[in-house]
Amino acid sequence: MKKQNSPKFAPTAPKRLLCHFAALALFAASGGSALAAEIATFKPEESLQRLQAGNGRFVAGTPTQTTKDAKRRAEVAQGQKPFAIIVSCSDSRVGPEVVFDQGLGDIFVVRTAGHVVDEVGLGSIEYAVEHLGSPLILVLGHERCGAVAATVAGGEAPGHIPSIVKAIKPAVAKSKGQTGDAVDNAVRAQVLEVVGQLQKAGPLLAERVKAGQLKVVGARYDLDTGRAEVIE
Fold first, then answer.
1. CATH superfamily of 11-231
2. Is the pLDDT assigned to residue 36 strictly greater than 50?
3. Cα 190 → chain centroid
4. Domain definitions of the chain by residue range
5. What is the rounded CA–CA span in Å between residue 145 and residue 92?
6. pLDDT digits (tens, 9 = 90+) for 79-117
7. 156 CB contacts (<8 Å, ≥6 apart)?
8. Strands 215-221 and 228-231, how do they pair?
9. How far apart are CA 173 and CA 144, in angstroms?
10. What distances in angstroms separate CA 95 from CA 31, 110, 155, one per listed residue?
11. What's the predicted TM-score (pTM) here?
């Protein structure tokens, strides 16, 4: 029996993906909605202020629900224009939409254990910057992070967890010998490590950072108070 030649299907996937990206880019360029047009004019500092205001509401116990209703759901079904990108830990206690009191379509979230950024994560971030126009990336670490604590403790890890530990080790090494809590020091170091990684990621992110069109900042979330503190 003659073998069927199936590779002809392979080229269609990239083409479809490019068409999808182009459509979203067109939506971003056109504004898409009144809210999208408003967000398109945001500067990085304005986006950071919006996140800080939302966190303030969360800490005070006065969150809003204005962007989580059926009307908002129908609006964002047509496209998205997130005003910020949040790179955070996967920890179930640190949901960015909740912590910053944001709703559907407001923020673009990339989450991994220890807020590690690999090639896929970086590509996701670049997509949000390039095609959705997000002007701010906030890297969010948190108090008592399990991934960071495991790296500080050392020892063997099962499965694919060693890849996470390997990515966090440079931050642990940098924070070694500092006064205070070793895990918290490493959490802060890991945040700054990822911030530096993203600021230098070329060509997309580095060019926009240099031009002042994109800002990358770090923050530490306090599990006890709910406060997300910007760190440098």
1. Carbonic anhydrase (3.40.1050.10)
2. no
3. 14
4. 11-231
5. 11
6. 889 999 999 999 999 999 999 999 999 999 999 999 999
7. none
8. antiparallel
9. 18
10. 27, 11, 29
11. 0.81
Sole residue written with tokens 């912590």: 99
In whole angstroms, what is the distance from residue 155 CA to residue 151 CA? 8
Q: Which tokens sit at 172?
A: 């642990």
Residue with tokens 């959705």: 132
Share of the chain above pLDDT 90, in %: 71
Question: Token digits for 207?
Answer: 């060019």
